[in-house]
């Protein structure tokens, strides 16, 4: 059986701010087997995909956590599962199908 959580936190795409370039963060990523992919700040082609995803993710998390805004992070996995089950109008597949080859 395949679990979506098996693939969590394997890759982090971030800009080059100090929070993501510190020695502690670098060590954490290495210990956890996380690949860090730094991008340049202010270059739309570098971070356009994530900005589009934020356009979806942030409003959904805001609505789900409306009663407890400080607990928004508790809904991230649920929203991830939902997004991974939505058929792309471009590929005609869900992200889950493309990752695993299994139709949902």
From TrEMBL:
Q: Which SUPFAM superfamilies match?
A: Ribonuclease H-like (SSF53098)
- Which GO molecular-function terms appear in the entry? nucleic acid binding
Report the residue ranges that make up the Integrase catalytic domain in this protein.
1-103
Biological processes annotated in GO: DNA integration
| InterPro entries in UniProt | Integrase_cat-core, Retrovirus_Pol_polyprotein, RNaseH-like_sf, RNaseH_sf
Name used for this protein in its record? Integrase catalytic domain-containing protein
């Amino acid at each position: 059986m395949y679990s979506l959580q098996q693939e969590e936190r394997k890759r982090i795409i971030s800009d080059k701010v100090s929070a993501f370039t510190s020695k502690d963060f670098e060590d954490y990523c290495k210990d956890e087997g996380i690949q860090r992919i730094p991008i340049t700040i202010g270059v739309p082609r570098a971070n356009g995909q994530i900005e589009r995803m934020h356009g979806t993710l942030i409003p959904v998390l805001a609505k789900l956590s409306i009663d407890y805004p400080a607990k928004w992070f508790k809904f991230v996995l649920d929203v991830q599962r939902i997004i991974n089950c939505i058929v792309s109008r471009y590929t005609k597949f869900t992200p889950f199908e493309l990752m695993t080859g299994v139709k949902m």
